[in-house]
Design a protein that fits this description.
The structure is a single chain. The protein is of the alpha/beta class. It has one domain: DsrEFH-like (Hypothetical Protein Ychn, Chain: A, 3-Layer(aba) Sandwich). 21% of the residues lie in helices and 24% in strands. The strands form two sheets. Strands 6-3-2-1-7 form a five-stranded parallel β-sheet. The chain has a two-stranded antiparallel sheet with strand order 4-5. Strand 1, helix 1 and strand 2 form a beta-alpha-beta unit.
Length: 135
């Protein structure tokens, strides 16, 4: 039996224009499917990956942002957003998708997966991980 590792995926890029955001999401779902302890961080332009109201019609590509709603089903419920990145882009938590999970230890209560943290708190979170992957 393999040991569970703590994986942190750092999402820095805007959702479209490169393949980084989509590839990150695929790797996150695969890692979670193999029962790894997965956390995500959205910093810099990566905060736009989970922004509400994405319209990719004029880009001619599929909007994959609804896929983030599946993260809770994969037990991915530690999603960190760097406060400084939100502030610098004029965004608040209300501008982001509502990502939740059902807490089996609390009678399946629906809980928020998103946690806004400072850059200093983010350093501590990163220090607690076994693997940190940046996209």
């Amino acid at each position: 039996m393999s040991e569970t590792k703590k994986f942190l995926f750092v999402n820095r890029k805007a959702p479209y224009g490169t393949i980084y955001a989509w590839e990150s999401l695929e790797v996150i779902l695969i890692s979670a499917a193999f029962e790894q302890d997965v956390s995500l961080v959205f910093i810099d332009d990566g905060v736009f990956q989970i922004a509400k109201g994405q319209d990719t019609t004029e880009l001619g590509i599929k909007n994959f942002s609804p896929t983030y709603n599946a993260l809770g089903d994969y037990d991915v419920n530690k999603i960190y957003i760097e406060k400084e990145s939100l502030d610098a882009r004029g965004l608040t938590v209300d501008d982001l998708l509502k990502l939740t999970y059902e807490d089996e230890d609390d009678d399946w209560a629906e809980k928020d997966s998103i946690h806004v943290v400072s850059s200093a708190e983010l350093v501590d979170i990163m220090d607690q991980q076994d693997v940190v992957l940046s996209f």
